[in-house]
Amino acid sequence: MSPATITIMITVLMALMFLSGKFPFGLTTMTCCVLLVLTGVLEISDAFGGLSNKTIVMVAAMFALSTSLQKTNLALKLKGTLSAMSGKKDLALIVVLFAIYFVMLLIMPGIVAMALIIGFLDALPDTGEVTPSRVIMPLLMFNVVWEGTVPVGMGATIDFSTNAYMESIVAADQLLVFGNTVSVKIIPAILMIPVCLFIWKLFPKKQLNMSAVQSKEMKESTLPQWKQNFVYACFILVIIVLVLNKVAFFGKIMWIFPAACVVAMGLVGVMNPKELTLAVCSDTVWMLAGILGVTAALTNSGAAEIIGNMLLSLISWTNNSFMILLIVCLFTAIMTTFLSNSGVKSVLTPLVAAMAVAGGMDPRGMIICITVASGFSFCFPTGSTTCALAYAAGEYNPFKIAKITLPLLFCLCLITAFAANLFFPVWG
């Protein structure tokens, strides 16, 4: 059996284990990593490379920071404020949460923003209507349409970075210019705002593991005031470093700085060894590390390229511009459900660009559809590290919430294809 076939079979096994609901997410992905090594698809260093991945290190440390904040009086005050709003001012609370998250997405990567907002959600009570289990997934949906949409920071370079995948394939006048991608991406992003403000009501209200811990610890802090101040200082410094991540120095240390603060808090006695271990070795961390191993196998084994070539055969049956763009969107969205965003983009962009040139088509609309739809990763944990983090923290079974996520995904693809056809029709 070829490595690609084995990888696809193991990915299907992972989906079935997620579906059963009988196994922790971390155990599921680690099982797949072990199988990938035993079958010879990956070396140990590749299968378990996620354990040393900078994103995983940062996320694990952010969980520990969140735990340390729960040991201070600030957490108690924040819980009281959110409790007062919950039930009486649910819409206002939702608007505030999404406004905060929007600002975060302007100044930091999505995975960092998600890890940070989950820490804030620890303070939400489980007794009201607005609970962490109902808010995390809508925040992920908001993330996938708004991250990189505003032309600030990385959002300002999206057209030029896309050109790097096809500049040797297409003519100079068919390359993207500043604002091309945003002109399409902004339409589904704006339409997603009212959806996110109300769709949270459709998700199950349940107590999460992090909420269970919270309920035991949410009482007057026993830490001396100087230790509480030390926690506040560490948290503020982490926020500053994350906000300044575009500055070269801070960009280098942002992934390890939260861990440095956690180490410092351990040394001064803010958290004991057991608390530190539970915080940084949660099921979420193991799941994230395992997801990276599976997506690496999908890319390295050639499975992604096999899937990508299927797109070319799907497009060949129609000459309708909108239908071609819709097929590209849907296919990209399906691929990004199991592969990383950047992996999908790097595989499909040159393939579609070459196909467009050979067929006398304008590639810009299709390439923009790939760029936009490759971010629609909210239907399955393997879509991205941000997606995996949200699924693990919210304890979502992807198949149980598919009745919400799949129709929304289809609508986003329809809107994106319509916008792309409006500005960049395939036949000019």
Automatic annotation (TrEMBL):
It comes from the Bacteria. It is found in: Membrane. Residues 16-311 form the Citrate transporter-like domain. GO terms for cellular component: plasma membrane. Its main location: membrane. It is a multi-pass membrane protein. Keywords: Membrane, Repeat, Transmembrane, Transmembrane helix, Transport. The chain crosses the membrane at residues 12-39, 51-70, 91-121, 186-203, 229-247, 253-272, 284-302, 322-344, 365-392, 404-424. Pfam families: CitMHS (PF03600). One of its GO terms (biological process) is transmembrane transport. PANTHER family: BASIC AMINO ACID ANTIPORTER YFCC-RELATED. This is Anion permease. It comes from Hominifimenecus microfluidus.
